[in-house]
Write a structure and sequence with these properties.
Elements: E1 24-32, E2 38-41, H1 43-48, E3 56-60, E4 67-74, E5 82-86, H2 87-93, E6 99-104, E7 110-111, E8 114-121, H3 127-136, H4 138-145, E9 155-158, E10 163-171, E11 180-181, E12 187-192, E13 213-216, H5 221-230, H6 234-240, E14 248-250, H7 251-258
Parallel strand pairs: 1-5, 2-4, 7-11, 8-12
Antiparallel strand pairs: 1-6, 2-5, 3-4, 3-6, 8-10, 9-10, 13-14
Length: 259
């Protein structure tokens, strides 16, 4: 009634501009956590790039050459000219631009034969508990990793079990912009990353000879920074003040540091 249309037939048309097929698009970047390696685009982008659910989208920062990739999910709610990328993937890729070149990956995703993982806790210092948990749940780890398209330098956080992992090496090797995936047949090895705290009893000779101040401090700056980062107690911080490059310190203090 409001339009005063009286005919039995009407012509319906869209006011949106027509969709033009393209092999790549420049899209604005948004990040969102907990997408399990997925990227999100709207149906208009889907049809422009000829995508279907779970296709692999690659994205590239043209300023730095940083690249990443993820499986695609189609959602009406995604804004136009925008791609939403899992925050883990975006951080791992090193992309810092507000805009990326996006294209459908047409190359085969390589199944990995072996993966060497560096493991560390996201928070806390219970490294050996984390390693033990992962080794008892390798199949679950594989299932989680299988959600992600693997590219060179990728680092991921499995928040549900407090695990951060870096892919140290793979077979085949991840050269350039090669994309790969963990499968149920992938052999996984693990090693701890960073400093590993442990309890120990330190026994040091404190005889008069150990008081001799004849040990020169040199080339230990990385070790000092590592200890400072791992141990925050005031006693440790005060102890480290003894070690200034170029000076000589007592043997017993150097022995304690070495231990």
């Amino acid at each position: 009634e409001d339009t005063n249309i009286s005919g039995q037939q009407i012509v319906v048309y869209s006011t949106e501009p027509p969709i033009q097929k393209a092999s790549e698009l420049m899209l604005e970047v948004m990040s969102q956590p907990n997408l399990m390696g997925y990227t999100l685009v709207n149906p208009r982008i889907q049809h422009t790039l000829s995508l279907v659910q779970d296709d692999v989208l690659a994205f590239e920062d043209e300023l730095t050459g940083a690249v990443g990739a993820g499986k695609v999910e189609i959602l009406e709610s995604v804004p136009d000219n925008t791609i939403i990328i899992d925050s883990e993937i975006l951080e791992a890729s090193g992309i810092g631009s507000f805009e990326v070149k996006v294209y459908k990956n047409l190359r085969p995703i390589i199944p990995l034969q072996t993966v060497s993982l560096g493991i560390s806790p996201i928070s806390g210092e219970n490294m050996w508990e984390i390693i033990s948990t992962v080794r008892q749940n390798v199949d679950s780890l594989k299932g989680w990793l299988a959600n992600y398209i693997v590219f060179k330098g990728i680092k991921l956080r499995w928040n549900a079990v407090n695990i951060a992992c870096s892919i140290l090496s793979t077979t085949p090797d991840l050269m350039g912009d090669i994309l790969a995936q963990v499968t149920e047949n992938t052999a996984i090895s693990m090693s701890p990353m960073g400093l590993v705290p442990f309890n120990a009893i330190l026994i040091i000779d404190i005889s008069r000879s150990m008081m001799a101040r004849d040990v020169e401090v040199k080339n230990i700056a990385p070790a000092i920074e590592g200890i400072k980062a791992a141990m925050e107690s005031q006693e440790i911080q005060e102890f480290l003040k003894h070690f200034k490059p170029g000076i000589n310190i007592p043997r017993r203090i150097s022995a304690a540091f070495a231990a």
